[in-house]
Each structure stands twice: as structure tokens, then as C-alpha cells.
């Protein structure tokens, strides 16, 4: 079993017990008492705290006591003698786990007293922890062995900061290695996936915070998100994994809608956010590492900015199957992986955008023939939308800050191009923003100045977070017809879901979850 353990940090035993009660109520599977946060740290205080917690939560709730040095991430700077008393008292109180930093345990004074206490306990397990706050361990396996060598039977806990997504593979490899009980994960945004995959790979524990404000390490996921958004109770060794690759990716609603639909259909599948920063080389290295580890069970990805063209290049370079539409568009937003390492690439932005435009304008595809359209931007989304509009016979002009990029795209699809400044002269009936301007958190920015908006226009903003961008708000004030990015997002996600699973997701559920998530509500509360 992989325990979802919630760390409790507070200055008094009473507050600690109250917070532990809340954690148990919310679904915590184990409690970590960070007694280094207690203002009056002493052995009797720790014993009383454990007894009170046992009385309130029952004897079956696993409890860990941790007391870190200030230099090793501790909350308060307690004398070593007080910390030793805390560990010894916890062991004599029958706590399930006591966690000691490896470097501290190597001190003869510490190891002697902790060993003696453990020798008299049949119920307490020692966790020896090693942390690397700046980045990867030089050799994660050697650090694991050092924990075991220091105390045979100890449970190693290895935690390091993942500065980029590809730093995570050391942790995942170690988790997968059948070496016995261990706790391994990465801190930081890039390391979030290791906290969730720990359960699939059999780690003893993975950490969740009580709420977004009470995390005790960077990248900790709130308990309600882990249990709700990521459906952690359903994760096991057979879970198939999907995800979204992007930079940034924290804003994405894809995990919320795909996980909700997996749950709705009773599928043993999990969808995660993979923050892949660093451009084409990092993207290629990430996919190489994923394909070299079929035991991760990763079967597909959504691909968002800025990697859509890199995704196409990768699929082609590795001999993957690429649908002709994606080749013509020059961008990919969906990748499928098979257990043998094969890859297939698709573009669902095309159908998602075209359905949003036609439904938003209340017209048929043929009605777009000859219609003047201004497309702002020349990235992956723009490529799909320009392809769809040109297929329908629309007269498209591409506007972009870097005119050379607009020119390349225009020449590929046989349409006009112009610099952004020329938007002042635009006579288009439909204006489409394909840039990320206005996307959370930069909600005050706009790709199109307000003075260029007119009542006879229809304005389509592909940004979906927030649902009503500043561009759409000002366009509505001018009397223009508005098409929001949520519609396109849900349309393309439905097409992706069919590719991922071979089944249809409920569109109403997708839109409901997206709307709730963007409004700040729990995405799975219905």
C-alpha cells in the first residue's frame, strides 16, 4: 500500500491534533507530525501529543514523527538534545514511523540513543531521509544504499528538487527498482508527477498538504486535489497514464476534464500535467526517456504551447505514424504511445476550432467561402485554424509580430500576411486570436487593440483561461459576436479522448468541469 501522508506543522500540540483531525476527515491515510514546529519541544510533550492523536483518530491511523534540524528544513531551531528526546519518546510511545535525517543519524550521539530505543520497540520503523534542495543527487542509488548501510532495515527516503522534467527519471527509476519499502519523490513544479506516480510504482508514501497554504515542501499537492482531481484512490500498478505536455502547464484544464471523464466511465487511467520547459531539445529528451520506460504505462499526451511543431518533428524523426492532416498543418497536439515504443501523432485543434467557429457563427462550412478573416499569431494553433479556414475557402490574412513567421505560414496555405500594425486597417468579418496574450495569469494583455474591434465583427479568442478574456469582454462591449476558447478546448478534448480511449466522453461533463475549474471550484464536485 502507498500511504497518502499529510504533514502537520503547528506551534502547539492542541493545534496539531485539530489539524490532524481535519486531515483524517479529508481522507489522509497517514499523518506526519512535524514536531520541529513545536515551540516547547520536549520528550513528554511528544508522548502526550501521540497519545492524544491515537485517542482521537484511533489505533489504525499510521503516524510518523519527524524532527528536522533548522538547516535541513526544520521549522524551529531546537537543540539536538531536545530532538533526540523527541525521537526516543516517539519510539517508546509506539509511533509507526520516526524519521531522522541521514546526516544527523550518523552522529554517534544520535544513532546510539535511537538504536537503543528501536531495540525495545516492535512497532516503530526508522525512516532515514536524504534531501537535495538544489537539484538531483549525484547518484540516487548510492544515496539509497547509504541509508540502508547506516541502519539495516531502515526505510530510505530520498527527496530532491527537480529543476526540469527530465530530472525526475532518477526518482522514477529508483521507485520502480524492487529494493523494498522506500519513499522517493521530487520537489518543485516539475516534480509533481513523481508524487502521483509513486502510488503506481509502489512507493511506501507520497505526501499531500492539508490545503494550498500549508505545504511543507515545494510542489506538494493539496489533499483534496490528490484525492479528487487526480483520483489517487483509483491508482494502482495497472493504471494507464496520459498527460499534457506544455510550458507553462499549471493553468491547463486538461487534467480536470480527462480525469473526470475517466472516472465517469470507470476507466483505470490517470491524466497528469508534465511541465516540459527548455524547448525542442528538452522535449525530445523527455519523449526519449518516456519511450525507454514502457513500465511507466504512459499511453498518450496532449501537446500544447510551445511544443506542437516539435511534436510533429519528433514523430517524423522516430518513424512514427503521423496523420496526413497533421503533416499538412505542420503541428501536432496529440501523441499516442504503444507498449513497444511506437508513436502516432494527430491534430485535433483543426476540428475543435472549426466546430467552434461554425457553431458560434450559426453557419455551415460553405458559408465561410470568400469570408474575410484576420488570424493573429503564427504558432501551432494558428496553423490548425488557418488550415481549416482555407479548406473552407475563407480569405485569410495572418498578422504576427514577427512578420517573417506570418509570411512562412501564409505561403504554405496560400493566404495573405501583414504586420500587427496593419490591424488598424483590417476589414475582416471574423477575427481570431491564436496568441497566448490574455491567458492566465497575464489577463490584462491583448493581442488586438480595442480600437480595432467593430460591432460587425465576430471575435474568436482561442485562449480559454479565463473564459472571457479582456479581448472578448471589449469585443462584446463593442457589440461584436464572441466565441470563447472554452468551446474549442472542449471540442478538441473530445476528439483527443476518442483517440486515447476509443470511446466518447460526455461533452456536457467536459464543459461543466472546465467551467467549474476556471471559476475556482472543485472540478469534480457535481
Describe this structure in words.
This protein has 526 residues and is of the alpha/beta class. It folds into 3 domains: 3-232, Alpha-Beta Barrel (TIM Barrel); 243-347 and 490-518, Leucine Dehydrogenase, chain A, domain 1 (Rossmann fold); 362-483, 3-Layer(aba) Sandwich (Rossmann fold). The protein is built from 19 helices and 21 strands. The strands form 3 sheets. It has a 9-stranded parallel beta sheet with strand order 7-6-5-4-3-2-1-8-9. A 6-stranded mixed beta sheet has the order 11-10-12-14-15-13, with helices on both faces. Helix 2 runs parallel beside helix 3, helix 10 packs across helix 19 and helix 14 crosses helix 15. The mean pLDDT is 95.
Short description:
With 526 residues, this protein is α/β, with parallel strands linked by helices. 39% of the residues lie in helices and 20% in strands.
Q: Which CATH top level class of the largest domain fits?
A: Alpha Beta
Determine the N-to-C terminus distance: 29 Å
What would you call the structural class?
alpha/beta
**Number of domain units:** 3
Extended strand count: 21
The CATH superfamily of the largest domain turns out to be: Aldolase class I
CATH domain topology of the largest domain: TIM Barrel
Helical stretch count? 19
Which architecture of the largest domain would the CATH scheme give at its second level? Alpha-Beta Barrel
Residue-averaged pLDDT: 95
Helicity range: 25-40%
Strand order of the largest sheet: 7-6-5-4-3-2-1-8-9
- Share in β-strands: 15-25%
Anisotropy-based shape: elongated
Amino acid at each position: 500500500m502507498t500511504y497518502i501522508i499529510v504533514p502537520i506543522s503547528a506551534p502547539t500540540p492542541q493545534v496539531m491534533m485539530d489539524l490532524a483531525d481535519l486531515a483524517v476527515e479529508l481522507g489522509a491515510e497517514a499523518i506526519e507530525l512535524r514536531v520541529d514546529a513545536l515551540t516547547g519541544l520536549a520528550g513528554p510533550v511528544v508522548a502526550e501529543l501521540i497519545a492524544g492523536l491515537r485517542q482521537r483518530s484511533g489505533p489504525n491511523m499510521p503516524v510518523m514523527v519527524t524532527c528536522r534540524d533548522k538547516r535541513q528544513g526544520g521549522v524551529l531551531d531546537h537543540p539536538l538534545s531536545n530532538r533526540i528526546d523527541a525521537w526516543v519518546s516517539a519510539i517508546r510511545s509506539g509511533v509507526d514511523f520516526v524519521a531522522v535525517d541521514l546526516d544527523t543519524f550518523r552522529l554517534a550521539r544520535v544513532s546510539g540513543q535511537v538504536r537503543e530505543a528501536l531495540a525495545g520497540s516492535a512497532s516503530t520503523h526508522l525512516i532515514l531521509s536524504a534531501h537535495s534542495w538544489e537539484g538531483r543527487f549525484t547518484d540516487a542509488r548510492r544515496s539509497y544504499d547509504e541509508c540502508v548501510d547506516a541502519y539495516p532495515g531502515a526505510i530510505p527516503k530520498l527527496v530532491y528538487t527537480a529543476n526540469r522534467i527530465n530530472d525526475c527519471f532518477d526518482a522514477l527509476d529508483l521507485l520502480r527498482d524492487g529494493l523494498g519499502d522506500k519513499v522517493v519523490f521530487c520537489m518543485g513544479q516539475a516534480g509533481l508527477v513523481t508524487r502521483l506516480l509513486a502510488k503506481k510504482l509502489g512507493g511506501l508514501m507520497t505526501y499531500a498538504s492539508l490545503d494550498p497554504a500549508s505545504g511543507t515542501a515545494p510542489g506538494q499537492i493539496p489533499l483534496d486535489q490528490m484525492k479528487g482531481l487526480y483520483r489517487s484512490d483509483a491508482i494502482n500498478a495497472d493504471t494507464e497514464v496520459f498527460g499534457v505536455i506544455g510550458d507553462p502547464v499549471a493553468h491547463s484544464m486538461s487534467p480536470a476534464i480527462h480525469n473526470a471523464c475517466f472516472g465517469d466511465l470507470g476507466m483505470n487511467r490517470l491524466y497528469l500535467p508534465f511541465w516540459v520547459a527548455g524547448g525542442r531539445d528538452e522535449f525530445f529528451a523527455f519523449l526519449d526517456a518516456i519511450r525507454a520506460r514502457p513500465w511507466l504505462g504512459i499511453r498518450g499526451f496532449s501537446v500544447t504551447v510551445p511544443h506542437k511543431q516539435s511534436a510533429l518533428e519528433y514523430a517524423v524523426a522516430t518513424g512514427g505514424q503521423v496523420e496526413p492532416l497533421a503533416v499538412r498543418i505542420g503541428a501536432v497536439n496529440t501523441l499516442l504511445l504503444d507498449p513497444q515504443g511506437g508513436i502516432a501523432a494527430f491534430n485535433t485543434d483543426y476540428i475543435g476550432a472549426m466546430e467552434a467557429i461554425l457553431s458560434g457563427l450559426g453557419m455551415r462550412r460553405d458559408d465561410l467561402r470568400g469570408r474575410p478573416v484576420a488570424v493573429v499569431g503564427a504558432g501551432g494553433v494558428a496553423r490548425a485554424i488557418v488550415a481549416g479556414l482555407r479548406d473552407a475557402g475563407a480569405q485569410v490574412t495572418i498578422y504576427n509580430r514577427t512578420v517573417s513567421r506570418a509570411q512562412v505560414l501564409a505561403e504554405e496555405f496560400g493566404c495573405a500576411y501583414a504586420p500587427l500594425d496593419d490591424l488598424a486597417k483590417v476589414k475582416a468579418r471574423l477575427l481570431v486570436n491564436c496568441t497566448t496574450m490574455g491567458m492566465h495569469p497575464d489577463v490584462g494583455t491583448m493581442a488586438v487593440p480595442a480600437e480595432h474591434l467593430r460591432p460587425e465583427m465576430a471575435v474568436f479568442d482561442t485562449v480559454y483561461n479565463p473564459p472571457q478574456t479582456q479581448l472578448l469582454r471589449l469585443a462584446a462591449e463593442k457589440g461584436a459576436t464572441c466565441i470563447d476558447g472554452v468551446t474549442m478546448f472542449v471540442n478538441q478534448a473530445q476528439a483527443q479522448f476518442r483517440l486515447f480511449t476509443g470511446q466518447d466522453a460526455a461533452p456536457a461533463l467536459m464543459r461543466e468541469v472546465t467551467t467549474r475549474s476556471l471559476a475556482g471550484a472543485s472540478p469534480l464536485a457535481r
